[in-house]
User: Fold this.
Amino acid sequence: MADIATGSIATAARRPRRRVIINKRIAPYFFLLPFIVFFVAFLIIPLIYAFDLSVYKSALVGGTRFVWFDNYKRAFTDPNFWDGVLLLFRFGAMQMPVMLILALFFALVLDSGVTYAKSFFRVSFFIPYAVPAVIATLLWGYMYSPSYGPFAQIAAGVGLPKPDFFNPSTILPSIANIAVWEFMGYNMIIYFAALQAIPTDLEEASLMDGASAFIYALRIKLPMIVPTIIVTIIFSIIGTLQLFSEPYLMINLARNVINSHFTPNLYAYTLAFTGQQYNYSAAISFVLGGVVAVVSYVFMLAANRGVDR
Amino acid sequence: MAIVGKSSQSPGFQRNRLLMTAVLVVYFIYTFIPILYVITAASKTNPDLFSTFGLWFSNDFKLWDNLHELFTIQNGIFLQWLWNTFYYAVISAVGAAIFSTLAGYAFAKYEFVGKKFVFALVLGAVMIPQTALVIPIFLLLSKVGLLNTPFAVILPSLVFPPGVFLMRAYIDEAISNEIIDAGRVDGAGEFHIFSSLAFRMLMPGFTTVLILAFVASWNNYFLPLVVLNSTEHFPVTVGLANWYASATAGSGGNLLYTTVMAGALVSILPVIIAFLIMQRFWQGGLQAGGVKA
Assistant:
């Protein structure tokens, strides 16, 4: 009895501290739980399931059978897939520099204060980000139209031949323009925020005229936001390699140019939903994921080397 | 470096400022041409769309007629699409923001087994191609009978990995460990500290994630395209894209180009207005995310 009494007193005295320690140890799991449950259910399990699909093959004769990495072997030598990847490299090579350099330029201009109506421009340039990619494609698709688009109308008005936005050499710039329109402002806001976070000697800055303020920003501030720039480039690479909605919605406008394997995502979609080739489609998606990872990783290595130098 | 020079009142500064403003005006025009186009196109008759200049109104102002057509065609299905988009986005955004906040708090303020590994998994998740996820989700949902229901769109949207990074970065900055420790010394439990102390301080970050997740869901196209097949469940993006496809393929029957444009106008205006009203929130939050990124 006495033992129990002392024991309980001791526990009571120790309880707050011990409860805190246990709590501190298990609390993070409770905080994580809701996210992790959905993360596992809608990300990890689908991925495992997709991987499982990708090592089988189903045929009308013989049903579904395990084929090891046959689908991957096929993907690695499938010109439809690699043509799409190459096309996206070309697309990214023209779209990303234009978008990111514009974003950086405008962010520097807005940050150095060499303009009127700063907040007006900052907000207006961001507005296209609020327009769904589907609607943006629809709007530009209308404007590119040879029969009622304003560009064709203007060309006809001044006696020039109608511009063709949908032939093999113009389709990529046409899509790139939509992507620049949509995402320039988003990147600009991120750069702008990073620039604003750099503490500056206000007195010094106020003594500068416009041009030197801009050059100051370029020489001193730009190098300080390099990590932010690297992150935006990686996100742009990931976004570029996943291109789907814009070409998918423009199929009717450019029937002879945009085919079912125009981009890898379009190819995977077509394989799955018009060809019912879920197994091969899953393999294609994984190889694309691998391409995304490799390209991002190589870029990061190169960027780190550049920064170290 | 000769950075000390003319003051901001000098003629040199004024000239540079005018020049830069002119450059920004050019980009502003580029940004607003499609918005102007959707407004004028939604205000025309179909023949006028083809016969009058695209970037200005025709003499026959038909916006109200086109809106009437938009909301009555196919038994008013467009209103249903708007409503679907709205409630899918609200539920997804609220859920995603709560889950991201709780998870971000765990990553920012606790040490636990597997922390690095789990965070790396969440980071890696952004590299997964949409098709790699959505196609197996489609097949799995069909096995459990959730295909072609609102759940098929909402449940996967509750996972929003960028929200977790943003909240982790924000909480790192906004809530000091001293405050949490002070709460512990006072004998408050971990959940009490979170709900009464921390939550108020992380509200700005929470609002940003809410807005970003809302926009992500409002803009989503691929997931609903794959997992829904009856028109009454469509969000605006899928519905309008279908109308657009049938109008451009010439098989639309009585579907008019101008109706599609009226639909585009109605579906972007609320979000643009919301963005203008809430700019303080998204700008502040992107700042936190961008700087830490």
About this structure: Residues 63-109 of chain B form the longest helix (47 residues). Confidence is low (pLDDT under 50) at residues 1-6 of chain B.
